[in-house]
Amino acid sequence: MIIVLRSGTTPQDVEAVTExxxxxxxxxxxxxxxxxxxxxxxxxxxxxNLEEKIGVLPCVEKxxxxxxxxxxxxxxxxxxxxxxxxxxxxxxxxxxxxxAGPCAVESEKQVRETAIRxxxxxxxxxxxxxxxxxxxxxxxxxxxxxxxxLLVKVREETGMPIVTEALGIEELPLVAEYxxxxxxxxxxxQNFRLLEAVGKLRKPILLKRGMMSTVEELLxxxxxxxxxxxxxxxxxxxxxxxxxxxxRNTLDLSCIPLVKKQSHLPIVVDxxxxxxxxxxxxxxxxxxxxxxxxxxxIEVHPNPVEALSDGPQSLNPGQFAVLMRLLxxxxxxxxxxx
Length: 338
Fold this sequence. Notes:
The protein has eleven helices and 14 strands. The strands form three sheets. It has an eight-stranded parallel β-sheet. Strands 2-3-1-4 form a four-stranded antiparallel β-sheet, covered by helices on one side.
């Protein structure tokens, strides 16, 4: 349920409503707007009539049920769009934030060269995998903590915040120690213990859509994170598995405006995994921005032919620079800044 407080409500009023809800057995989440304060009451609404118990308080304007199964993630709970800050970089409305870098951190030379080139082209956040979930146990699994140290060197040299994936609860404290933003990958979208754990972090989270997950399931996974108190969540569309064999996945750009209608969280698009083909990254990036995406996650490698992971879908630095110029033109047309 949503409790909308009257304009001019005092902090003491908010505290009184909060304490009353806790006494009734509800979890409380507060959203401060410009004119109104909204309190989300999370719990079993069948056992308590909040209209009778809370709606009668003088500071309460109205009590509204949230119809969506995801409560805190919904537009009903927070009508205004959330802006997520990653270091000094913001992801959200009016922006096109680009996260770029190699699928996997392979060596200091490789990661440094990539970082310098994508920074020169205008990327805002550097991405790179230190721990890699691979379909085959014989594929390159990443450099682990050494990869995280190399990412930190990149941040120190370029000033770009870094985002990298945590595969499970075991690696999470280590990844959180080094990274500015923690990624929950597609294969872990419904790893609920991991979602609860990242929800307890006070650090931005990049949540990727599972390869066979619906939009509602994506938003419910985000709900796990928000329910633990972490509202700094960025959703990521990275393609879903369909019967089409021509591309690695089918990039579902229709989910961008759909998510925008249903949730206040920002959403970015990963056209690299979404297509699995470097030649399709440029048109799908432009289409994603036109569809309302708040940013892009793009794989870049100095020499994609020699990449230890996802070479066929990686741009080289020259191709990335061309893409960034096109994105700036598109951003101007759709009223976004880069």
